[in-house]
Amino acid sequence: MGQPKLRAGVVGATGMVGQRLLLLLENHPYFEVSVLAAGPRSAGKPYAEAVGERWKLERALPERYRSMTVYGADDIDAIRARADFVFCAVDMPKAETVALEEAYARAELPVVSNNSANRMVADVPMLIPEINADHLSVIAAQRQRLGTRRGFIAVKPNCSIQSYVPALTPLLPFGIRAVAVTTYQAVSGAGKTLADFPEMADNIIPYIGGEEEKSEQEPMKVWGRAEGGRITPAAEPLISAQCLRVPVSDGHMAAVFVSFDNKPTKEEILAAWANFQGRPQELALPSAPRQFLHYFEESNRPQTALDRDLEGGMAVSLGRLREDRLYDYKFVGLSHNTLRGAAGGGVLTAELLYREGYLN
After folding, report:
1. Burial group, residue 5, by CB count within 10 angstroms (0-12, 13-18, 19+)
2. How many angstroms separate the CA atoms of 233 and 171, rounded?
3. What is the 3-state secondary structure (H, E, C) of 7-64?
4. Do the Cβ atoms of 142 and 106 come closer than 8 Å?
5. Is the per-residue pLDDT at 140 higher than 50?
6. Is the dihedral of CA 82, 85, 89, 95 positive or negative?
């Protein structure tokens, strides 16, 4: 684009999402990682020493980050001197995360957050960029509340909802009445690998703390209205969710059942999915998939191992659409939870903010 790259800080750089952010930003056309931050036990160390054996990803730690000094996450003055905005992926209690992210914003550092703490705040946009880019309009009110000129917080939603909310969104005009969904969630969603999660061997755990509430409530904010400086969540459809942890490294799958006020044909649903695009596709953002929703005709697809990395892990895979005896239709969805659902979704959100002028 012929402009200098913005300096990006990664706060929570030693965790799994922070690690994924570093890989995604290594050669990014808009952003360059300029400062790393983490908890007290990492502060003051070179990054390679701070992360040590906790590096979880399949690619080796890039050389450019190895010797970078890690700052304390609360050393906001040092980070402000070295960054134009920050990605935040800390592992802290909710109240502490709220305070930390607001402190960054008040220091005039915009925050792109992978944390849940600020998701349901009425003037904080919670973005799936293809779906609700218009929610960025509430940032003006948030800045007024925080007393900032540049600083604000934008968040991404829970990783599990991205396996089914994108598929339901283009079907909203048919009047979705009720949704039942069961998600089958990878161990990386807990910040772990199969090697360091031995209780997952030959096992499924039918409980993930707080996940079902997020899966039922967060879609309503994503589908809500941005007006009067706040986001009013949608009142319908009704969603009932169950969330299971399964022995898979990456990729969240959803089995979805949906009923409509005005039942579409199968052909209408497939056309709605095939034609669905959002602002990231219009702007040709670097991390945006060309085709957001991919439908597989094969009866045994999508499969986690085969399809989670589709379009760099940023596309959503769908399959097995068929009529149901209790609901109108059922189908299966799949998304990569640490790419589309976490770090990649954060980078795409930052790209949207950049191109729409919010990071200037």
Report:
1. middle
2. 18
3. EEEEECCCCHHHHHHHHHCCCCCCEEEEEEEECCCCCCCEHHHHHHHHCCCCCCCCHH
4. no
5. yes
6. positive
**pLDDT, tens only, 291-338:** 999 999 999 999 999 999 999 999 999 999 999 999 999 999 999 999
Instruction: Please give the span between the terminal C-alpha atoms of the chain, in angstroms, as a whole number.
Output: 14
What is the C-alpha to C-alpha distance for residues 171 and 169, in angstroms, rounded to an integer? Answer: 5
- Of 88, 135, 159, 243, which one is the catalytic site residue? 159
The pTM of the full predicted model, rounded to 2 decimals, is 0.97
* Residue 159 known to be catalytic: yes
- Listing from the earlier edge strand, what are the strands of the sheet with 70-72? 70-72, 31-38, 6-11, 85-88, 111-113, 153-155
User: What residues have CB less than 8 Å from 302, skipping those under 6 apart?
Assistant: 253, 294, 296, 317, 318, 319, 332, 333, 334
Distance CA 134, CA 142 (A): 15
Q: Does residue 2 surpass a pLDDT of 90?
A: no
Write down the H helix ranges in the chain.
Answer: 16-24, 47-51, 63-66, 76-80, 94-106, 129-132, 139-146, 165-168, 211-222, 266-275, 279-283, 304-307, 310-313, 344-355
* CB 161, CB 219: distance < 8 Å: yes
**Which residue has tokens 């003055």?**
77
- Please report, for residues 11, 175, 246, the alpha-carbon distance to residue 223 in angstroms, rounded to integers and kept in the order given: 29, 13, 28
Residue pair 120/221 in contact by the 8 Å Cβ criterion: yes
* H-type alpha helices, 87-206: 94-106, 129-132, 139-146, 165-168
Instruction: Confirm if 304 and 334 have CB atoms less than 8 A apart.
Output: yes
| Catalytic hit among 88, 135, 243, 252 | 252
Classify residue 253 as left (phi > 0), alpha (psi -120 to 50) or beta: beta
Domains and CATH numbers, the chain: 6-158+343-355 (3.40.50.720), 160-335 (3.30.360.10)
Based on the residue annotation, tell me whether 88 is a catalytic residue of this protein: no
Residue 334's φ and ψ, nearest 5 degrees, are -145, 135
Distance of CA 63 to the CA centre of its chain: 26
